[in-house]
Amino acid sequence: MEGWEFMRIKGIPVRVHSSWVLLFMVFTTSALTQFSKVAGDLTPAWLIWGYGFATAFLLFTSVLLHELGHSFAALSQGIKVRSITLSLLGREFIGGEFKGEYSDPIGALKVAAAGPLVSISLGSIFLSVVNYANGLSPLLGSLFLQLGGIN
């Protein structure tokens, strides 16, 4: 599945499929619903939209970091990573394309576990700052709460 290449990391082409535009819009509007509940009536609409957009962008970044976790673990096992394509369509929600054989089952387990470990770490970081962020702004606290839960 091809997409637009927007960067290379350690020689790995990172692409985004056009379906992510739809996903980005869905997450932005979904976040808007949550932020509208938290925001007061005097909160400007552009600010609520900004928080929705930030949530979708940080989710996109979280998914990319998850995939990079898999990819870096694969590289450490001598597996070539052809590309990472962030996609909503197809048999995978997102995915990296790997080429090679694992030297042992432990190597395959390390690659499989790396992405979820990144997500758990990100979720823990986001959730650990919710109370502090709430003190700055209830909207900011809600943003970190959403990202922590999603991760």
Write the SSE topology.
Blueprint: E1 4-9, E2 12-16, H1 19-38, H2 45-76, E3 80-86, E4 95-99, H3 105-128, H4 130-136, H5 138-150
Parallel strand pairs: 2-3
Antiparallel strand pairs: 1-2, 3-4
Helix pairs in contact: 1-2, 1-5, 2-3, 2-5, 3-5, 4-5
Please describe what this structure looks like.
- The protein has 151 residues and is an alpha+beta fold.
- Helix content is 64%, strand content 15%.
- The chain has 5 helices and 4 strands.
- It has helices at 19-38, 45-76, 105-128, 130-136, 138-150; strands at residues 4-9, 12-16, 80-86, 95-99.
- Strands 1-2-3-4 form a 4-stranded mixed beta sheet, covered by helices on one side.
- Mean pLDDT is 84; it is low at 90-94.
What can be said about this structure in brief?
The chain is α+β, with helices and mostly antiparallel strands. It has helices spanning 19-38, 45-76, 105-128, 130-136, 138-150; strands at 4-9, 12-16, 80-86, 95-99. It contains 5 helices and 4 strands, in the order E-E-H-H-E-E-H-H-H.
Key features?
single chain; 151 residues; alpha+beta; 4-stranded mixed beta sheet; 5 helices; 4 strands; 64% helix
Spatial gap, N to C terminus: 25 Å
**Cross-sheet strand order for the largest sheet:** 1-2-3-4
Q: How confident is the prediction overall: mean pLDDT? A: 84
Low-confidence stretches: 90-94
Which oligomeric state applies? Answer: single chain
Strand content: 15-25%
Largest sheet: 4 strands, mixed
Total strand count, please? Answer: 4
Classification by helices and strands? alpha+beta
Annotation field: number of helices: 5
Helix content: 55-70%
The H/E string reads EEHHEEHHH
Shape: elongated
Radius of gyration: 17 Å
